[in-house]
Structures are given as structure tokens and as C-alpha cells.
Design brief:
Length: about 350
């Protein structure tokens, strides 16, 4: 059964903005306005939902957030849903989303990362609809570094489109821009050099498979539930195997090690031809680094493990399409990821 791709966006299409997890506090509303204007400058109409309150850790009660997200995903007039960012507890939406209605509706692009993995990864696994793990709405005003693409490029691409991203080999060392003080920040601070790192040994990597993955701290809570069944997805949509990607947001190396062990034991990586690991600023411990944590948990898979990929909480952002056919190449002098929307 083929993966389903939403229709490419065209000028005049509507993009829904809702917060399935955390909303936007008042002091960051101007940054949100800048991001919305950038979307509108591309010729799209922005429809902002009611679930946007940023005074607490969630934008609205779970039932309201689930209903608004379901409504946007099943509205044929809304072609993409792009939340401002993630948050902490989007897991409370999963039993409340009308998955049958979403599955029956015309596919809609969903774009985001972090806690949005809690919704997007199950959406792809349960419905076979591709989603975009990448820069979110609040990051949209940043200029895209050479070699990478933005979510705009992905959602407007035609069926069968193939695109290759090459890491800029520079990233941000720490911290975030102060959007309250500088809501129009457009230049990413990429002040440290860094390349992809193979963790499981030496030699070149050249592997293909369908992409699936997300944030470790979020997905680990779904192991053993119907919302994270990668084995069935692989049998149904990816008999060629998977390229699984994971990224740590902020938990220390001990915690990440435990989470990844649990995900492996639950079968999340069973169909993996290779594992991509996002660059992280999450802390090491005195006796275990983040790289060592990954290798300790995933080394038994006996597949290539490539770390420091630009797919996590450390800028810049390399968008990954859940469900896309992909090829990763990593050598001593070259790193690239090619995705095909078929």
C-alpha cells in the first residue's frame, strides 16, 4: 500500500495554525505575527484556531485541542496544519482524535517537531499519510542555510519530487534567540563547526528505506501502544525497510539510554536499515555521553548509526518527511540525505 501524500500547496491555499500542545504567551505574539506574515507573503491564507493560549503548558483542554486539530485535518479547505511549536503533553490528544475521520479525509500536511512528534508520527503510522518533521511556524522567519530546504519547499513539491539536502556543517552552540526582544530575528546563529558522526564503527554508509521517527522523550511514552506500531507500518508501506531517526530534546544521557533501550525492546527499530540520530545539546553524564547512550541502546541492532544529523533541537533544521523514500550517504568527505515523495 503506497504512502499517501497531501496535494502540493498552491498560492491561495489555506494553512491552519493551532497549538495541539503549548500555546503562545503574550510576550511572543509578535514573533507569531511575523511568522504568519511570512506565510501570507508566500500567497497562502492563514486560519488561526482558538487553541492558542500560552498562559500555561497547554493551549486549551485536551478535548478542545483534539477537536480543533481533527477539524483542521478533515476540512478540505485547509491544506496544511503548522503549529507554532511543540510543548510537553500532546500525548493527551491521542485517544481523542477521530482517527477514522482523519484517515477517510483528503490528506493534509502537518509540519512540526518536538512534542508534535507525539501526534505526527502516529498520524503517519495509523493513516499512511506523510508528515513533515522540520522547522516549525515560529522558526519559519529564519533564512534557510545553503544545502537545506524549508517546510515551504516540501509542502509545495509535486508527487514524485526528489530533493537532496547537504548539511552546512555548522550549528548553534547553545541557547536561543530572544524573540520577545527581537521578534523579527531572521539569521540563525551557527557558530560551531560539526559533521555527521558514525557511531557503530568505520566505513562508508549508503542505505535506503522509508523515513519514520521523532523526538525520543516523546515517542518513548508511546511504546507498546497502537500509536507507535512501526512493524505494521513497515509491512504495509515499507517492505524495503525503514530509515529510523530519533533526536533528544534535553534529557540527560542516562535517561536517553533508558528510553532508547525501551523503544528497541518494544520493536520500534525492528525494520530499521539504519538509524539517524539528531544533534543534541542535551547533557552528558560523568560516565556516559549522549553518543555512548545511543550506541549502548541501539548497537545490538547491527545497522549503521549516523549521529549529529540536523533533525533535532539544535539549529539548523533538516526537514524529514515521515513516509518518504530516502537514501542516506555518509563518507569521510560527504554527507547527504535524498528524499523522494513516492
Amino acid at each position: 500500500m503506497p504512502v499517501r501524500y497531501p496535494r502540493p500547496l498552491r498560492p491561495g491555499d489555506r494553512i491552519g495554525v493551532t497549538s495541539p500542545s503549548s500555546g503562545v504567551p503574550e510576550e511572543l505574539r509578535e514573533r507569531l505575527a511575523v511568522a504568519v506574515r511570512d506565510v501570507e507573503a508566500r500567497g497562502y491564507e492563514v486560519v488561526t484556531g482558538r487553541c492558542m493560549d500560552g498562559s500555561g503548558h497547554i493551549s486549551a483542554p485536551a478535548a478542545d485541542r483534539a477537536a480543533e486539530l481533527t477539524a483542521m485535518l478533515t476540512d478540505p479547505g485547509i491544506r496544511a496544519v503548522v503549529p507554532p511549536w511543540g510543548g510537553e503533553t500532546a500525548i493527551d490528544l491521542l485517544p481523542l482524535i477521530d482517527w477514522e475521520a482523519v484517515r477517510a479525509a483528503e490528506p493534509t500536511w502537518v509540519v512540526g517537531y518536538s512534542d508534535l512528534s507525539t501526534v505526527m508520527t502516529p498520524l503517519t503510522l495509523l493513516t499512511g499519510v506523510a508528515t513533515v518533521h522540520g522547522n516549525n511556524l515560529m522558526d519559519t522567519p529564519y533564512r534557510v542555510p545553503k544545502g537545506l530546504v524549508s517546510w515551504f519547499d516540501v509542502v509545495a513539491a509535486p508527487p514524485g519530487h526528489r530533493f537532496t539536502q547537504i548539511p552546512p556543517e555548522r550549528h548553534r552552540s547553545s541557547g536561543w534567540d530572544d524573540w520577545a526582544e527581537h521578534p523579527d530575528a531572521r539569521t540563525l546563529t551557527l557558530d560551531l563547526p560539526g559533521r555527521w558522526t558514525r557511531l557503530d564503527g568505520g566505513g562508508d554508509v549508503d542505505v535506503e528505506g522509508r523515513l519514520i521517527g521523532g523526538c525520543v522523550e516523546m515517542l518513548c511514552n508511546l511504546t507498546g501502544t497502537p500509536y507507535l506500531d512501526t512493524s505494521t507500518f513497515a509491512r504495509t508501506h515499507a517492505p524495503e525497510g525503514l530509515l529510523v531517526y530519533v533526536e533528544a530534546a534535553g534529557d540527560d544521557a542516562f535517561a536517553i539510554c533508558r528510553y532508547l533501550h525501551g523503544m528497541r525492546l518494544a520493536g520500534f527499530f525492528d525494520a530499521a536499515n539504519a538509524v539517524l540520530v539528531g544533534r543534541t545539546s542535551a547533557p552528558d553524564t560523568a560516565s556516559l555521553t549522549q553518543h555512548q547512550a545511543v550506541l549502548d541502546a541501539l548497537g545490538p541492532l547491527d545497522v549503521p548509526i549516523v549521529a549529529d544529523v540536523e533533525c533535532g533541537h539544535v539549529p539548523p533544521y533538516l526537514p524529514l518527511v515521515n513516509g518518504a523514500r530516502a537514501r542516506v550517504v555518509h563518507t569521510a568527505t560527504r554527507g547527504e540525505l535524498t528524499q523522494t515523495l513516492d
